[in-house]
């Protein structure tokens, strides 16, 4: 869902996006920093021409050619950040739900007295807020 476009993108935004994707592609090809920087400088020169182009049609054509060139020169195994979509650690961190703490042993809870005191207080406040907004549950209701 994060890839849904939320607005109109300008020509400059499209060029900047292509530039960033091109640099990421170059990172995948060149593991030596100085070689990567050299290639990035050469790439920047092409994009400076694209941004400074006054003729909108020619700039659009240059952008289209740049997208095509990026597509044709994509790395077969692009580098991905570990926690980014497609990365090796994406969505690996499991955050346990809050109710798990209700099942802690009293001796475990005793190690964090202030936290559990405040937690019990907040649970009571939440229940009061819920009952105020939705009413108390019917004790005769057996459908639960």
Q: From the helix content, strand content and strand pairing, which structural class follows? A: mainly alpha
Q: Can you tell me the overall shape?
A: elongated
The number of E-state strands comes to 0
Q: Main β-sheet, in a few words?
A: none
Strand content: under 5%
Order of helices and strands: HHHHH
Report the helical percentage. Answer: 55-70%
Radius of gyration: 27 Å
Question: Please, could you describe this protein's structure?
Answer:
There is one protein chain. With 144 residues, this protein is mainly alpha-helical. The protein is built from 5 helices and no strands. Helix 1 runs antiparallel to helix 2. The chain is elongated. The model has no long low-confidence stretch (mean pLDDT 90).
Topology:
Layout: H1 11-29, H2 33-52, H3 56-72, H4 106-109, H5 113-134
Q: Nutshell version of this structure?
A:
This protein has 144 residues and is mainly alpha-helical. It has five helices and no strands.
Structural descriptors:
about 0% strand; about 140 residues; mainly alpha
């Amino acid at each position: 869902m994060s890839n849904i476009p939320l607005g109109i993108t300008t020509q400059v935004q499209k060029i900047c996006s292509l530039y960033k994707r091109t640099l990421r592609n170059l990172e995948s090809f060149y593991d030596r920093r100085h070689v990567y920087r050299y290639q990035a400088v050469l790439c920047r020169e092409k994009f400076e021409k694209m941004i400074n182009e006054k003729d909108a049609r020619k700039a659009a054509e240059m952008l289209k050619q740049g997208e095509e060139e990026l597509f044709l020169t994509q790395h077969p195994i692009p580098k991905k950040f570990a926690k980014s979509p497609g990365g090796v650690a994406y969505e690996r961190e499991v955050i346990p739900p809050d109710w798990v703490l209700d099942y802690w042993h009293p001796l475990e809870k005793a190690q964090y007295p202030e936290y559990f005191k405040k937690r019990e207080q907040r649970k009571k406040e939440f229940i009061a807020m819920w009952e105020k907004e939705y009413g108390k549950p019917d004790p005769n209701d057996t459908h639960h």
